[in-house]
Amino acid sequence: MREHEQHPSSAAHHAGPRPRLPAPAWMLAWPSGVQPVSLRANTRGVEFLYRAPGDRWFRVEASIDLRRPSALRVRGLPGPDPATLARLSKAVERCLLRSPSARAWLAGAQAWVTRLEGMQVFGAAGPSSDPLIRGVDELLGHAARVRSGEHLGPEQPEQPEQLSNIEAALAGAGQQLGASTLAQFSVALLLACGAFERALACWGRHAATIEADDSRGALACAAIMSAYRGDVANAHANAKRLAAQTRDGSDARHAGELLELLGQPQLAAPLLSVAASDAGEDASAFDVHFRLAYVAAAAHGPDQTRRAAARMLELARRPEQLLATARMQREAGEFLLAEATLAQLVRDHPHAHERTRHTATLELATSKLWRRDHEGAASLARDLLATNANDPAALRTLGVALHLGGRSPAGLELLVRALEIDPRDDEARLWRAEILDQLGDYSAARFEVNEVSIGDFPAWQLLRALVEEHHTPNRRIDHDTWFIVDTNIRALLGDEAPANTKANHQIATASITRALARLGGNRSKRLTTANAEGELRWLEIESPRHRAELLQLHACHRPIDDVVAAFEQLAAAHPAVPFFVTYPAELLMWRGEYERAFLLFEQVWYATRTRWGYVGAGAAAMLLGRDERALELWEEGKAHYLYIDAEATYCYRGELLRKRGELDQARPDLELAVQARPERLGAWVNLALLEHAAGREGPMREAVARVEALCPAFAWEARRDAQLGDPNPRPPNDLARYMSTLLELLRGNRSSVMYTIVDRNDALRVLPVVKPDVWRDFGRRSLALFEDELLAALVGAST
């Protein structure tokens, strides 16, 4: 699953004012079972919310009713247990009657809601005459437009006029609402706009005020901005404090989604379960259960995923919701149920969007292919080809189905057509290599498998080893990377694997062939296997390298010392695996521990000749100022490997040559580094500095713009440390000082997967490489929390 996959949400809107109310002092004297967890005013009165064991929710509404002798009307709103609700309603009524201030409090709350109904965001025809209400109304209006996508986004140029309108509305709201509340809302709104630079600047001005506040909005804002700036420890601390303040389903959802964003699905899932328990039946309820299913799957909770997916199916109304439901059913391991949902979508929604129907049909065919129902998969693929004869995914699916059905030459022809239309279809290329291997054309198979760009996952590793061993017997089994193949064979065959999988050529090829057969028609990155009845289950197989990659990514949400310690344990348990040494050595280099990193890289290079041995040892040597040793190590690497375009050597070597003033030699390396990996931040920084040294101001500014687009947060930190002012365009020398400062903050990080800096407090900041719209979209989803706080502050400021 992709970490930040979007869910099919419906647009949020304001149905009417429902401000949260603080509990009055006299209510704190009520019996604990009658004290509500939350209070909200509405157009009828005040709603008291109660949470019973088992996440059962009860609501009691109280209002002024002068027709009654008590002048009070208390009623239970429909809930799970009518008898309990009736008793609770009576208890609330008794407590209100015994509280002399209750009637005045209820009347005041209703009066405030009446005033709020005069806001345009709640349907009023014109602006309020009250300047404070008018200012808040304008802010809520901006938030509504941002949520609907009318405002800024990273794909749009900044619109200063709209941002100025937001800032004017903030000024109009006045200080009566509190500096922290307005600052929180401003940061959240700017982030949701995609105006990242302004959000960072606003945070920089108000961070101390917000961090001194312990309200829900302040904690959420501090957590979000800490995460955006790579401050993992503070982000987690504030998110956990926010979770501890959860009162209702809305609170739980905001805290859960924040913890999910921070890479903590195990902590997020219980909160989202609370949110789902009080999600109601409206359009947004589907979204809540989708988010719960998604996070539960990430937390490896199949039972919870299954329950959430079942509720999604009950709530699904639109084709897109059925598609999302099928995916969550599949995540929970309910493949046949997912197929039934996809079939329902295709059958019952003939007028659904063409892309939705195509995706559903293709995913249904893929599932059938995985469980060896090649005839069913072929039928669906032919349906797609009847609509579009040049559909590459359908051609690939039909080609694989024919191959699995014993018609390999015909299947091969279709795979050739698919690759002619889409040469980037790696699954088609992998299947083509497998068929060629089975037909005995080992040279062609070897060429195809080496063209696959999504390597280093089990199916590719197994097939590549099989093809190479067929092409040159004993070549692969004598290679020191056979441990990777052996790991995959044993994961698939279990006790049926031979004691020594590389005992000889015949045993090795037979073992790989049997292992691949266990995968049925699945050659994707995420593997499944089918039993004799055709029932699928997920296979959790991680190659050693992939395991190392995932553990290194833990640095985004765990202390780096903990991650390095975990690597050390793996290295001790698996001494033959070099990745458990090279990946933590890279982390050490990012933190500036160059000598320690150099020793680890150099040791593993001479012991195993793994690629990152010479890359990392050379990089650490360069960072230690040992330029000649760095160049020597990179040259040694050429004796064992052909450099690949995407490797980091080009970035590090280009940096070394640039610093030595050898600009003509540095340029090809740095240009290739950014071309092969456009996300490689350190390469763009070096390219900007190279262009400055070459006197090319235009290309320098272009490179700086790429740096700022890739990582606005760290660029902002560098500008602060470089003490740059606001003039725009900045003079070239200022830009060079700014880029040099950022390069110093980056220490040894030239990654295209994670960005890190060492800040002024000598703390490591870590950010995964994600698209800016991840932060913008999260900002939009979280706006409701800050709107809630703003309305509560408005009511509190005037009562």
CATH H-level superfamily of the domain at 554-774: Tetratricopeptide repeat domain
Radius of gyration: 30 Å
Number of strands: 8
Q: Strand pairing plus helix content: what structural class? A: mainly alpha
Shape: globular
Task: Summarize the helices and strands and which ones pair or pack.
Layout: E1 38-41, E2 46-52, E3 56-64, E4 72-77, H1 82-97, H2 102-116, H3 131-147, H4 160-173, H5 179-193, H6 196-211, H7 216-228, H8 232-244, H9 249-261, H10 265-277, H11 283-298, H12 302-315, H13 319-331, H14 335-348, H15 354-370, H16 374-387, H17 392-404, H18 408-421, H19 426-438, H20 442-451, H21 458-471, H22 482-493, H23 505-517, E5 527-530, E6 536-539, H24 544-553, H25 560-573, H26 579-590, H27 594-608, H28 611-623, H29 627-638, H30 649-659, H31 663-676, H32 681-693, H33 697-710, H34 712-722, H35 732-746, E7 754-758, E8 764-768, H36 772-797
Antiparallel strand pairs: 1-2, 2-3, 3-4, 5-6, 7-8
Helix pairs in contact: 3-4, 3-36, 5-6, 5-36, 6-7, 7-8, 8-9, 9-10, 9-36, 10-11, 11-12, 11-13, 12-13, 13-14, 14-15, 15-16, 15-17, 16-17, 17-18, 17-19, 18-19, 19-20, 19-21, 20-21, 21-22, 21-23, 22-23, 24-26, 25-26, 26-27, 26-28, 27-28, 28-29, 28-30, 30-31, 30-32, 31-32, 32-33, 32-35, 33-34, ...
Protein name: Transcriptional regulator, GntR family domain / Aspartate aminotransferase
InterPro entries: TPR-like_helical_dom_sf (IPR011990), TPR_rpt (IPR019734)
Organism: Enhygromyxa salina
